[in-house]
Specification:
3-stranded antiparallel sheet, 10-stranded mixed sheet, alpha+beta
């Protein structure tokens, strides 16, 4: 670039200026024109990404270069500046059409700087959003990470630019509200989701603005990728814009602010809004179908849907300030020191990145650790620097401008975040499996009916044939026997008649001589014998003809029998064929049962891995249980496909089909104890997600868990079941269902018999959640809930005691609310059940969670005047005085002071004790 005497770049070096573009962070400064730095070369970008101190800390994957975009916004003069600086001109002059800013050194000399955008004091909130944040929001919707950050002196409008809700004037909405409006306009509620965390970095401590009790969140870094996560932060799924605005209002109410000379509502912490957008990418899987005869075969290439996960980080930095100008003192001074230290650490990181330094001091501050992906990492980053016009603050304005100039030299490598959505694939495969099972059962029933019908028909035909054959043979035998007997009878009668006739002739006729007698005796018998012979021949002929007819009939019957035997053989062959088909079906069914057994074993492995992941989370690990489950399923799928080839693809598809809520709930009633343990662990992990709780209850999961708690003696099952009930008890509707089904009695019995601290922690957590319901106070106490909580302190484990303290605090809070509303009279049920001595004993416990809940419980109990005498006699008054003076939480300290001042009984006792 040619030399220009009218401008300077960086430090003023007189009239001779040289512009050297070879180094983004060169110590030799160029002309006063602060032009946009050129994109870094690929080698330089790669060097920065690979350096061990890089804020990005990501691996060298394919990415898109993207420089940090910086816009400057000028705040109009406020009332104080209009009066104090009325005789002085503004210290800055804006040239928005040239995207330049002039900073006056004196009446005749100015420094000129160039930014990506220059926004005057008249720029609308909509204009600011469109040029600063909208490109980042669009990148987040496409699956990239994005950061929008505001930097500047205190009182220059950072919070107004980012966090303005615009409830009175919609045109005044800030970047946070407008960004979520655009996100909700682009996503699909059925397939996409938006989750939000809202945090503040106060005095180098990360606190949850949505849950003030969560006041020390740790930062977890992935050792492989360097990604930063906050597993302890509250993550709320947002469905609409109104819910998001309510959440912002809640978070802003918990944010620390103070009144200084420079700003009446000066933010004393860095606010960090994290928006996680999960979008499904359509059109990435395919389905093939073919038909063969009457049977339809569905062949699917099951590719899991692709999900893009983008994260939008909006950072409202606390304003930098000079102590002599802000007038900070005492605790406010300590806050100012902490703010300036963290901003200084951020400035050092920006300088190192701008100068391409080999080391970037990321770990000097939690702020720089949180923003390591925003500067030099993989996120698309936009920075808006806010300045004021007053010449009294020219030094702070110059420092802010130089911070923006250095940030413009930082280049990120944008990377899209895509992964497979195994959950939706599992749901799809489960539906397909149900359809195939129903079709198989229908075909099996039709086949069984057909086989039974053919078998019955064949048996009937065989029986009828055998019966007809036997009847025909019997009839023929009887007929021939009757004919034979009749013939014998006729012959006997004829023979008798002949004998009688022959004897009568012999007695009546005398023989005159021997010759005549011989002739007569010879002639008559011959004639008689001839006649008998003729008759016998006729009878024999008749018998022969009858015999021939009978033989012919028998032959016909035999042919019919042979024909029926052939039909019987054909029927037997058909039956054998059907039996073979049945055996084939039985073998196929056995094979399916074996595959189902394998699928169940894989499900148990998945539940075991999910349980291990949950334990890691309890020890401070990062990630989501369901995400680990998906990852484990992906590994199993890859290994089995590589081992078995195409033949095992169907088995793996069935593996995904087998992972379903109904099937897991059915396994809770299995006879095998190991099966029940794995199933209840999976249900407990599912119950940890708010979106699954309604489905679990509707499917009967709550009743099954209570049944396990009642019937089982296995302490592992009791522990996990109690944890699942504790997750479900976070929902008010589920709390009433648990109480109506006798859940508090079962939990109390379990607490009485359990010895394992983890089991007691789960049971105490479930009862503590139920203690927070105003409607269930009397019933919970009547079924032994309070006594069960107090009984669990025998364990002495800090985690158990923390849950007991939380339950007592919730119960006391509900009682205090009921007393203030006039719906409750009389002493506290906690005091009646003997909880006060334990509360007083642990009011100054070394463990912060226990102490915080006990202090809240004491304050709530003291708000009801009828409890005052019991608390005084039990020593609680001294603890209240200590809390009002020494408690580290300002809100609890204020509540204790207000309670002591508003109680006549406490005031009288304090006067008596001269306190």
């Amino acid at each position: 670039m040619a030399a220009s005497g009218g401008y300077r770049n960086g430090t003023h070096k007189g009239n001779t200026k040289v512009d050297r573009l070879g180094s983004l962070g060169s110590a030799t400064k160029s002309s006063s024109l602060k032009s946009k730095p050129p994109p870094a070369s690929p080698a330089a970008s790669g060097l920065r990404r690979n350096s061990t101190g890089s804020v990005g800390g990501a691996k060298d994957d394919a990415g898109v270069p993207g420089r940090v975009r910086v816009a400057v916004r000028l705040r109009p003069r406020n009332a104080e500046e209009l009066m104090a600086d009325a005789d002085f001109a503004d210290c800055v002059e804006l040239q928005p059409e040239l995207k330049r800013l002039k900073l006056r050194k004196n009446n005749w000399d100015t420094d000129t700087y160039e930014f990506d955008e220059v926004l005057t004091e008249f720029a609308s909130q909509k204009r600011v959003y469109e040029v600063v944040a909208k490109p980042v929001v669009e990148s987040v919707l496409d699956g990239y990470n994005g950061t929008v950050m505001a930097y500047g002196q205190t009182g220059t409008g950072k919070t107004y630019t980012l966090g303005r809700l615009g409830e009175e004037d919609t045109a005044a909405r800030g970047i946070m509200v407008r960004a979520l409006e655009d996100i909700f306009a682009e996503i699909s509620p059925e397939t996409d989701s938006v989750s939000v965390s809202y945090l503040q970095l106060y005095m180098e401590t990360i606190q949850d603005l949505l849950d003030p009790t969560n006041d020390n969140i740790s930062i977890v870094e992935d050792p492989k990728t360097g990604d930063v996560s906050l597993p302890g932060a509250t993550l709320v799924e947002i469905r609409d814009q109104q819910s998001f605005v309510e959440m912002l209002r809640l978070g802003e109410a918990h944010r620390f602010a103070a009144n200084t000379k420079l700003n009446t509502e000066s933010s004393r912490s860095h606010a960090i809004l994290m928006v996680y957008v999960k979008r499904s990418v359509k059109g990435r899987d395919s389905t093939l179908s073919s038909e063969n005869g009457n049977s339809s075969l569905m062949v699917k290439t099951f590719k899991p849907p692709v999900v893009r996960k983008g994260k939008l980080v909006v950072v409202d930095l606390a304003g930098s300030e000079r102590i002599d100008k802000s007038g900070s003192e005492g605790h406010t001074l300590e806050e100012a020191k902490s703010i300036n230290l963290s901003l200084s650490a951020l400035g050092k990181c920006i300088n190192a990145l701008a100068e391409n330094s080999a080391h970037v001091p990321v770990r000097d501050s939690k702020l720089t650790r949180l923003l390591r992906d925003s500067f030099g990492g993989t996120a698309r980053t936009s920075l808006v620097v806010t300045i004021g016009p007053s010449p009294r603050h020219r030094g702070e304005t110059s420092s802010t401008i130089m911070f923006g100039q250095r940030a413009m030299k930082v280049e990120n490598m944008l990377k899209i975040k895509e992964e497979f959505d195994y959950k939706s694939l599992s749901r799809r495969l489960e539906i397909q499996l149900d359809k195939l099972i129903m079709e198989h059962e229908r075909q099996q029933k039709v086949f069984d009916d057909k086989v039974e019908r053919i078998t019955v028909e064949a048996q009937n035909r065989i029986s009828e044939t055998e019966r007809n054959y036997a009847d025909a043979l019997e009839k023929e035998r009887l007929k021939y026997q009757e004919d034979y007997m009749q013939s014998i009878k006729k012959l006997e009668e004829q023979w008798v008649m002949d004998q009688r006739k022959h004897g009568s002739e012999r007695t009546t006729t005398g023989l005159k001589d021997d010759n005549f007698d011989k002739e007569l005796n010879g002639a008559v018998p011959v004639a008689s014998a001839a006649e008998k012979t003729a008759e016998l021949k006729i009878l024999l002929q008749n018998e022969a003809s009858l015999r021939a007819a009978a033989e012919e009939e028998i032959n016909n019957l035999k042919s019919q029998v042979v024909q029926w035997k052939r039909l019987e053989a054909a029927g037997n062959a058909e039956i054998l064929k059907l039996r073979k088909m049945l055996e084939d079906e039985a073998r196929g069914r056995e094979k399916l049962e074996e595959e189902i057994t394998i699928l169940q074993s894989q499900l148990f492995q998945l539940s075991f891995e999910a349980d291990e992941t949950r334990r890691q989370l309890d020890r401070g690990g990062s990630g989501k249980v369901l995400g680990d489950l998906d990852s484990f399923m992906s590994q199993i799928r890859h290994s089995q496909l590589s081992d078995s080839g195409n033949g095992d693809k169907a088995s793996m598809a069935k593996l995904f089909e087998q992972v379903g809520l109904q099937k897991i709930l059915s396994l809770l009633e299995a006879e095998d104890a190991d099966v029940r343990i794995h199933a209840v662990k999976v249900v407990a992990n599912l119950a940890a997600e708010e979106t699954n709780q309604k489905k679990i209850v509707e499917a009967g999961g709550l009743s099954s868990l209570l049944m396990l708690l009642r019937d089982t003696e296995d302490e592992t099952i009791q522990r996990v079941a109690a944890g699942a009930i504790a997750n479900l008890a976070m929902n008010e509707t589920n709390q009433e269902l648990i109480m109506s089904q006798g859940g508090i009695s079962l939990l109390s019995i379990t607490a009485t018999h359990a010895e394992d601290p983890q089991t007691l922690r789960m049971v105490a957590g479930a009862i503590a959640n139920l203690c927070g319901n105003d409607k269930l106070q009397i019933k919970l106490r009547g079924e032994g809930g309070i006594k069960a909580l107090l009984g669990m302190v025998r364990c002495g484990h800090p985690d158990v005691l923390a849950q007991v303290a939380r339950g007592i605090a919730n119960f006391a809070k509900c009682e205090s609310r009921a007393s203030s509303q006039g719906t409750k009279n009389g002493r506290s049920l906690l005091i009646e059940d003997g909880a006060l001595p334990w509360i007083v004993q642990n009011a100054n416990n070394e463990a912060s969670p226990i102490r915080r809940h006990i202090e809240l419980a004491l304050c709530h109990l003291a708000q009801h005047e009828v409890n005052a005498k019991d608390m005084i006699s039990g020593g609680a008054l001294w603890e209240l005085v200590r809390i009002s003076r020494d408690c580290s939480r300002e809100d609890i300290r204020t509540l204790a002071n207000r309670t002591l001042n508003s109680s006549p009984t406490f005031q009288s006792e304090l006067r008596r004790l001269r306190i």
